[in-house]
Amino acid sequence: MNKKIYDFSGKKKIWFGLSLALIALIIAFSVIRGVEIAIEFKGGTIITYSYEGDVKSSDVQSDIEALLETPVTIQQGENLSGDSKTFSISFSYDQGLSSEKQNSLTSLMQEKYPDSNFEVLDSNDVNPTSGREFFLKCVVAAILAAVLIILYIAWRFKKISGWSAGVCAVIALIHNLVFVFGTFAVIGFEINSNFIAVILTILGYSVNDTIVVYDRIRENKKIMPKASFTELVNVSTSQSLTRSIRTSITTVSTMIIVSVVAYIYGVESILSFSVPMIVGMIAGTYASLCIASPLWVWWNERKNAKTVKSKK
């Protein structure tokens, strides 16, 4: 065989240790710093103001936080019905925003920026119920997808211990999703609908890469019937390495271009999708090559060792 064979299975302790260390850091960071939850999941108020001229969003944010005594999120935009600009101010407020507080907020903006003609365009209280229902539906969909993945892989790869392969594939998927969550937590992106979109996209992307590796293992099982689990995985993963890396480079490069453009123009809504996608795709390629298959080897080696031990 001319193709160079890499010892992926032999280094499984390194892969597992590296992943567990990074996951532990993500969990610690999330607990210590906290995670930003979008208003549609926790409820609150959104007020949109129109204004003229140039106003720094950081100044407006500090003024409003001082008045309301709660963190706020500000998004700038353009008023399509005129030449003015807009500020969308969102924040969590358990009781909703009273008319007195809203009037005080508007008066503050008009006093602080008398030349900017601040006016209220829209004000809404956001009920978290619909957002939570949407989140729960996505969780149910992800769990159902995981069960179907296990069943599909168990049936398609039954000649190479399909049940264990399916479970290892799902563990690798969970590994990828933790890294996506960690990206949101570390960078400070809100957990919002973009988070759900990235999660569902990575679910489909990552499992496809893993199945390609499993398919190579199944084909090599016919060619190398006497090969051990370790040999099968090393050969099959090495054969899939170039394809996996090229696919990953193509998709990641596209997302990097999107991220650069979004950063230049300050479009955070796109950045909060493209940047976690980059991390998720890299983690997905890594998990398909270094987590799913080596974990499958470890599973079957332990199973065989127990079988041999029970026969003695």
Q: How would you explain this protein's 3D organization?
A:
The chain is of the alpha+beta class. It contains nine helices and four strands, in the order ααβαββαβααααα. It has helices at about 10-35, 40, 55-70, 100-110, 130-155, 160-185, 195-225, 230-265, 270-310, and strands at about 45-50, 75-80, 85-90, 120-125. A hairpin with a 6-residue loop joins strand 2 and strand 3 (about 85-90). Helix 6 packs antiparallel against helix 9 (about 270-310) and helix 7 runs parallel beside helix 9. The longest helix has about 45 residues, at about 270-310.
Give me the Rg, rounded. 25 Å
The spatial strand order of the largest sheet comes to 2-3-1-4
> What string, H for helix and E for strand, traces the elements in order?
HHEHEEHEHHHHH
The helix content, as a percent range, equals over 70%
Number of strands: 4
Low-confidence stretches: none
Distance between the termini: 38 Å
Structural class: alpha+beta
What oligomeric state best describes the polypeptide chains here? single chain
Largest sheet: 4 strands, antiparallel
> Approximately how much beta-strand content do the residues carry?
5-15%
Mean pLDDT: 83
